[in-house]
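Take a minute with the sequence and fold tokens given here and flag any structure token that looks odd. Thanks in advance.
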Amino acid sequence: MVKKLTLEEKELLDSYENDEWESILTDESRLKYKTAAKATFKKDKRVNIRIAGKDLELIQERALVEGIPYQTLMSSVLHKYVYGNLIDKSHN
């Protein structure tokens, strides 16, 4: 799906592409974000579930396309779901 940019979005993109932006990331904030990211993806629990064979095949195919292990994909989807970051496209 190709989305047209609004005038404001186009201006921002042009500004970025013309190197008019400067990072405000400090060593302190980088460490904070790095620590938070590591904690988010810390895998310290094991779960066993039963899943339909076809669903597992589709997950494995999707993971292959994404270039990640299927367990990582499943973990990511569950993480996004519990934090409310999954969007149901069927209701748009």
In short: The chain has a mean pLDDT of 88. Residues 50-86 form one domain.
